[in-house]
Sequence to fold (364 residues):
Amino acid sequence: MNPLNRSTLIIGAGAHHEYDMPTSNELLKSIQGLRSVGTLTEDTFLYKDDANISFSENSSLRDKINIIDILQDLPIEAWIQEKLKGQKYNSHFAGRSFERINLFLELFLGHFCSSHTPSIDSYLSNLAQHPDPYIKELYRILGKVIIVYYISKAENESDLGLRNRGWIHFLISQFILKDPDTFFRNKPQIITFNYDRLLERMIFEHLIYQHHYKVEDALKLIDSLEIYHVYGSLGPYKTWHSEESIKSSDYYKNAISKLKVIDEDRSSDQKKEIIQNIQKRTQHAKYVYFLGYGFDADNNYLLKNGLYQNIKDKDQEYFTTSVNTNTADAIRIRDTLMNPDFLQKQTITCQQLVSEVAPLYINV
Fold:
């Protein structure tokens, strides 16, 4: 058994998938769905709120209408001008008319699908190589809006209390239910590559509805966990936003400003900052858990450099979930990062790893 306060949890999209949050592959399929709808006519858009017209049979059509609606309310041109201040460029977008937004959204979707890239994050990161600075910034904004839209949609599709019970419920029932104070005094370090705030939200709700903490006290405790979102998050976790508010321009302005895409304009100094944050959260750890982590090459680079000094200084033990990990995946992981225990063995879920295979406990 491994003490919680000597452990670091590294969380990937797979760890939140069991709570109905989208993986990168599911985001990819959603974007392909937007593309398959085709170019919208203005009539379709104008009658989007007509009670006699049903979009329920084509969720991608409804999503595309919602996204265009959002884009029309965002100061995209102003954002690009601010980003490219002092540079020479041709303004293509200019304005928020349905025609211009529809045109460039369709171009973006076409270019993304034709790139055959494995994820939206990977596509956006490579926009740094695009020869047109205006298109580069425009496509980054369009991509971020789509990411925020689908993650927000997943967060709001059903009450968290109605979803599957998995590893987060185990942490809550095992360590927080009986004595929250002891948990927060012996908290693990947490690094997440996810944009969503699922973990924060679930612990926050437990403190409010089970232990009847005041909102401000619960927020302080959640903040004390210092969960590090490597690529940013969608913003505050105090309340999920209503279906209407996640369509508001203010919500998207805030979420987009906090969301970072892999390698987006990231200088060596910025990379160093991420690596230092990873090292800070792993330097005192004896045990490092990879939960639902996909071992992406870019993420591996950051982790390897963040963990490298720790590996040299002392023995750390590494444990990973293992779901559909084949021989090629295992070789790639060992070559680019390390050789965590249980890699490529039988399927091991997040809950099985932290509760049975390499169980966590609080050493009081």
Remarks:
- The longest helix spans residues 133-156.
- The chain has two domains: 2-20+161-239+258-361, 24-156.
- The chain is about 55% helix and 5% strand.
- The domain at 2-20+161-239+258-361 is CATH 3.40.50 (Rossmann fold).
